[in-house]
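Data availability (excerpt). All sequences and predicted token strings are deposited with the supplementary files. A representative entry, adenosine deaminase, is shown inline so that the format can be inspected without opening the archive.
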Amino acid sequence: MIPEDYLLPGAGTSINALPKISLHDHLDGGLRPQTIIELADSVGLELPSTDAAALGSWFSTQADSGSLVDYLKTFELTCGVMQTREGLVRVAREFVEDLAADGVIYGEIRWAPEQHLTRGLTLDQTVEAVQEGLEAGVARVAEGGSRIRVGQLITAMRHADRSLEIAELAVRHRATGVVGFDIAGAELGFPAHNHRDAFDFLAMAFMPVTVHAGEADGLESIRGALYDGRALRLGHGVRLAEDVIIGREDDENTYVTLGPVAQWVRDREVTLELSPSSNLQTGAIAAWGDDLQGHPFDLLYQLGFRVTVNTDNRLMSNTTLTKELALLSDAFGYDIDDLEVFQLNAARSAFLPLDDREELADAIVAGFETA
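Structure token line:
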């Protein structure tokens, strides 16, 4: 699929052509509508529409609810067609192809194996099927003359009780495509400390961790991600802005004070995996506004936090990484230098060895220099 391109205002630079890194992108949130239709027919799953354009519109409309709980309901359909080896392989392959078409040179694909077991697959078989699809996608991209690298982020559902088992699964497959671990799902009421055994195991195995936090819950959730989860990155983390206090000295001057959580995150360069459109859809930024200009992304960026730009779920948000960068550029007047910073932040935050991260950064710099 060829995504819509966007040009940077003034410069006329194609954002699609710029090399990009995707850190927060859910496999079950990035299906092609036509693929859903074909796979649903093969497994007997009823859909609200069998027209690809109409189905795509249905997903984005349903997801645009202002509630994370309602947003997550759309995944019943996408996960429903990802219960067989064939379905997982195809979805993973197309996912990589679509990333590459959007100019992504490195992508971490997160997904929850425990949600794909209803038709007899084991946990290990699901991981193997997704890896097969990812490798097939990489090969197809190479055949087209491009290059992309990808890795799996194995996710445990925070409302379930299988996190230690899923952590063990992630470590078991670290030599065959898995680069890290995540917990996701309903955040409020399901704190990270419920999964302390899993996080302890991962720490002992030196497996890097990102934790969904600061999206549907606030600072205490972020504290848990940092303390219990030893998170190197925060999935969204947008509500960290609740710990940023802005005061006024006089009519012309303001001051900013960071609370202890925000101070820790900034000083230790814990990465924020911000997803602008998704954050707006789920109500994560409701405290700051009801449009993208109210997103605290720019505040966090200007204060020196390690911000990255992500899509979260491309199908539900009807978006691409190119589109997210364009939306931010329109909202905050960012130019190509700002976009390069976001990609270098992502390169430095990838769950890869240092040499590989430096290679990614070099590729970003080279790509932006020739843009």
